[in-house]
Amino acid sequence: MKIMLDAGHGYNTPGKRSPDGLREYEFNRAVANYARDLFRNYENVTVYFAHSDDRDVPLQERTNRANSLNVDAYVSIHANAFGSGGWTSPSGIETYVYPSRPPVAYQLAQKIQRNLVVETGLPDRGIKTADFHVLRETKMDAVLAECGFLTSKNDIKLLRSEEYRKTVAEAIVKAVADQFNLKRSSNPPPPNTSGLYKVQAGAFQEKKNADDLGAKLRSDGYTPYVYQDNGLYKVQVGAFEKKQNANSLVSKLRSDGYETFIYLD
User: Fold this and answer.
1) CATH superfamily, region 2-179
2) Rounded (10°) CA dihedral 114, 264, 25, 3
3) pLDDT (0 to 100) of residue 263
4) Pick the catalytic residue: 43, 146, 162, 241?
């Protein structure tokens, strides 16, 4: 069984954030990471990511990769939004399939929707159809889950919570396992606990841009370092064993006007 997890958008995608600054991608990628780890508990399952922490991967590239890998299921993870930028009232969970309602994809959407509503306690907004690229251009069964509203003062508290992100991942994995009759491994690998929470302030094609950002950070009293990874020059400001320490640094950086995000490496 090959599964493509798609954390929607990228950490620098314009507009994809809550009124108080939570980037949608931060939530999406965290759920994808937790789901990948949970899938390690099942036999003969390979998980691929459609997204990247380095850039906002174009939709065509995401679906092309899924098709070329011939994956069996494509699950796109998102957080919803309503209105033009401020806090609004809509709240809850909704799951999308392509308008033709492919039978297996629709069944998977039903299971994901049901699990998410039961496990999160958020309102059930139902299963909907949409001509989204990731649903239209994928050759395999594909669904897109909207796991709460960035523009809801109620939902945003949950979307920021690591416990909620784990709950969402568990609900999605449980639905996929049920739909495709995945068998639990009798000897699952241990969870990956060796990573650090790293704070990244930028990623650039040109080294000069990374160096300029590093110099600005140093002038503001931070200790960044610039390194090259996968063809990009990245600016990292800290690495921590505890996420709350990374969160504290991010809060300070954002108060100083820097756009940053946390990733687990």
Assistant:
1) Zn-dependent exopeptidases (3.40.630.40)
2) -50
3) 81
4) 146
